[in-house]
Specification:
Structural class of chain B: mainly alpha
Order of helices and strands of chain A: EEEHEEHEHHHHEHEHEEHH
Strand content of chain B: under 5%
Distance between the termini of chain B: 70 Å
Helix content of chain B: 55-70%
CATH topology of the largest domain in chain B: ABC transporter involved in vitamin B12 uptake, BtuC
Number of domains of chain A: 2
Strand content of chain A: 15-25%
Oligomer: heterodimer
Shape of chain A: globular
Radius of gyration of chain B: 25 Å
Radius of gyration of chain A: 19 Å
Number of helices of chain A: 10
Strand order of the largest sheet of chain A: 6-7-8-3-9-10
CATH topology of the largest domain in chain A: Rossmann fold
Distance between the termini of chain A: 35 Å
Low-confidence stretches of chain A: none
Mean pLDDT of chain A: 91
CATH class of the largest domain in chain A: Alpha Beta
CATH architecture of the largest domain in chain B: Orthogonal Bundle
Number of strands of chain B: 4
Mean pLDDT of chain B: 83
CATH class of the largest domain in chain B: Mainly Alpha
Shape of chain B: globular
Structural class of chain A: alpha/beta
Largest interface: A-B, 44 and 30 residues
Order of helices and strands of chain B: HEEHHHHHHHHEEHHHHHHHH
Number of helices of chain B: 17
Number of strands of chain A: 10
CATH architecture of the largest domain in chain A: 3-Layer(aba) Sandwich
């Protein structure tokens, strides 16, 4: 199995605080890796370091063999590493379809003159973008809301739209930051199916942060557990479930 | 009753504040007779103002239902809502705009031309503030750059209006670009302050660089625009032909006024067309997305700096065009025409019109230029009325006259 993402000794220091401390793991192609841990363990900070929103103070991040440590976030996104956010970040006053069109900015013809004169290439690329948006809206079940303002969607729909907005970029690796937060059990199991579908049909690798253990244990191939910035365990769901340190720090006795 | 007492105290305080403010403004008259200048006390206006504020404040709750009616104000232009009708209405409006100056007075056409200049600037600033969400308080700087570009090119190199027009746009755009580089990493208030400073710097440079710009004396006798080489003066310059001779008609000063008006109209129609395309293009969508959430933009691979720069540069271009036209129309410019108040007016137009709404900007620009002309008698109260209207707008239509409508996209079948 080839490595898609390789994180080695990644550290992030804020003043005297080590938010992420020597974290290392790999994500192979078509693999689902989960990062779990108590609140404040540094999971989102880790995501921010990988996706370029923070510049890590130590360690390396490699994407398909190429180092991307500390590159600007938009450049990393163009490499095929796209993320969602814990607190959904949609373009709220734009419509659902516009959200998906904006996301394809790097794929459409954004040259001024081509657009002003509606060149053939421009029209074709716009049409392709629209079709891709159509496909993904259908996939996440939001087609009927295409022209609705994104901010007016229900919470669960906004979550799915955020994933669709990443998917129109056809990324290689998707980072999901608590995708199930605020979803009801039915929506969570739909999300479960969606994530597995993305892996199977779109050859996507997924790195996710999640607190919903049923979801995490159900879909992950590999789990990394963080506590106070430090990796305390890593392994398959079964190994994690029975790991003493993890139970003590996070899962709790049951 | 305690409640009533609170309300009475509140109303009295408001009334006192009104009295304090209105006594110097409304209560005194300056009398100047030969050999004597003094103040005359005239209390009834103050009394009316105080009484009005007191009673409105006291009966606020009871008055509110009345105000609600305005909230339900019907759409300002329901016909514009439908795309099929929209084109027709636009064509009709354009036709009227083309025809009416021929039946109107010189003064009216002059005011309309001024309104068109402000529409042009409003549309340009709308890109920056309304779409990209970058608060620019120094927009007048680009207007000044456009105006001085033409004035200087005309004075030193004898460049004609038609050549100077794109050049002015280009110069203004490059200033936007140069300014944009360092400042666009700033956000919100900080950006506003830096742009404000930039506006002042440009004006001060123009004011003090005597050897180039003539300083406060400005630049005079700037060549007027021509129509395919035909001039609109009574006697043509060397080698030129006046318009009326060419057409074989009597000379009239009105031709020039109408020509300038139509020229401005053409520029505005051009700007409308271009901006309308722009906002539906990827770059326009990116502007709006940037206004909504910069972090999300970055996570999707959009480069915020480039997008901001494009908004700033394109916005500045239209101010450059407007400035060039302004210089050509006035024939004389000095730094006085490019003070902060111009930026404020254009910004007010954008806000009043409904951030991001083109028709709104046009209506607001017309209101902001035409109303003060109609209400000449109330000249001294202009700023008062201006402020009042702004406050009322914020209460009743905080989203502006015509809030933006989201474009509806036709979904492909398949």
């Amino acid at each position: 199995m080839d490595k898609l993402l390789e994180v080695s000794d990644l550290s992030m220091q804020f003043g005297g605080l080590r938010a992420v401390d020597q974290v290392a793991f790999e994500v192979g192609s078509k693999q689902i890796v989960a990062v779990i841990g108590p609140n404040g363990a540094g999971k989102t900070t880790l995501f921010n370091c990988i996706s370029g929103f923070y510049s890590p103070t130590g360690g390396r991040v490699e994407m398909a063999g190429e180092e991307i440590t500390g590159r600007p976030s938009h450049k990393i996104a163009r490499k095929g590493l796209v993320r969602t956010f814990q607190n959904i970040r949609l373009f709220k006053s734009m419509t659902v379809i516009e959200n998906l069109m904006v996301a394809q900015h790097t794929r459409v013809n954004s040259r001024l003159l081509s657009g002003l004169f509606k060149s053939r290439n421009y029209r074709r690329r716009e049409q392709e973008a629209l079709e891709r948006a159509h496909y993904w809206l259908e996939r996440v079940g939001l087609l009927e809301f295409a022209n609705r303002e994104a901010g007016n969607l229900a919470y669960g729909q906004q979550r799915r739209l955020e994933i669709a907005r990443c998917m129109v970029l056809e990324p290689k690796l998707l980072l999901l930051d608590e995708p199930a937060a605020g979803l009801n059990p039915k929506e969570t199991s739909e999300l479960d199916q969606l994530i597995l579908g993305l892996r199977e049909e779109n050859n996507l690798s997924i790195l996710l942060i999640e607190h919903d253990m049923k979801l995490v244990m159900g879909i992950s191939d590999h789990i990394v557990v963080l506590d106070q910035g430090m990796p305390i365990a890593a392994g398959t769901p079964d190994e994690i479930r029975s790991n003493e340190r993890v139970i003590k720090a996070y899962l709790g006795e049951s | 009753m305690n409640f009533l007492r609170v309300k009475l105290v509140d109303a009295t305080l408001a009334a006192l504040l009104t009295a304090l403010l209105s006594i110097p403004i409304l209560g005194t008259h300056i009398i100047s007779e030969p050999g004597y200048i003094g103040l005359e006390w005239d209390g009834w206006k103050v009394f009316i103002a105080v009484a009005l504020v007191f009673s409105v404040r006291l009966f606020q709750e009871q008055l509110r239902p009345l105000a609600r009616v305005t909230h339900l104000m019907p759409d300002m232009a329901p016909a514009l809502r439908f795309t099929q009708n929209r084109r027709l209405v636009m064509m009709l409006l354009l036709f009227v705009a083309l025809i009416w100056p021929f039946f109107s007075s010189r003064g009216n056409v002059d005011i309309a031309t001024l309104a068109l200049i402000y529409i042009m600037m409003g549309l340009g600033l709308n890109i920056v503030v309304g779409f990209a969400g970058l608060l620019d308080l120094g927009y007048v700087a680009f207007y000044a750059v456009g105006a001085y570009s033409y004035a200087l090119l005309s004075q030193y190199f004898g460049v004609s209006f038609w050549l100077a027009l794109p050049l002015s746009g280009l110069f203004a755009a490059s200033f936007g670009f140069i300014l944009g580089f360092p400042v666009l990493r700033l956000r919100g208030d900080y950006l506003a302050i830096v742009t404000l400073g930039f506006g002042e710097i440009i004006r001060l440079v123009l004011n003090n660089w005597d050897s180039l710009t003539g300083g406060p004396d400005g630049i005079g006798s700037i060549a007027k625009p021509t129509l395919f080489g035909l001039e609109f003066s009574r006697q043509a310059g060397a080698g030129g032909i006046p318009f009326h001779e060419f057409m074989g008609i009597e000379y009239s000063g009105m031709y020039k006024v109408i020509f300038l008006y139509l020229l401005a109209l053409a520029l505005v129609v051009f700007a409308l067309f271009v901006i309308n395309r722009l906002i539906r293009m990827p770059v326009g969508r990116a502007w709006e997305a940037l206004r909504e959430d910069e972090i999300a933009c970055r996570s999707l691979g959009l480069n915020p700096t480039n997008i901001k720069l494009s908004a700033f540069t394109l916005g500045a271009t239209f101010a450059g065009f407007a400035g060039c036209f302004f210089a050509a129309r006035q024939g004389f410019i000095n730094p006085e025409s490019f003070t902060f108040i111009e930026s404020a007016i254009v910004l007010a137009i954008v806000v009043l019109g409904g951030m991001g709404s083109q028709v709104g900007v046009i209506l607001a620009a017309i209101a902001m230029t035409v109303l003060p002309e109609i209400a000449r008698e109330f000249d001294q109260f202009r700023m008062l009325i201006f402020g009042g209207v702004m406050v009322l707008m914020m209460i009743w239509r905080p989203e502006g006259l015509l809030p933006t409508k989201r474009p509806v996209m036709e979904m492909p079948h398949g």
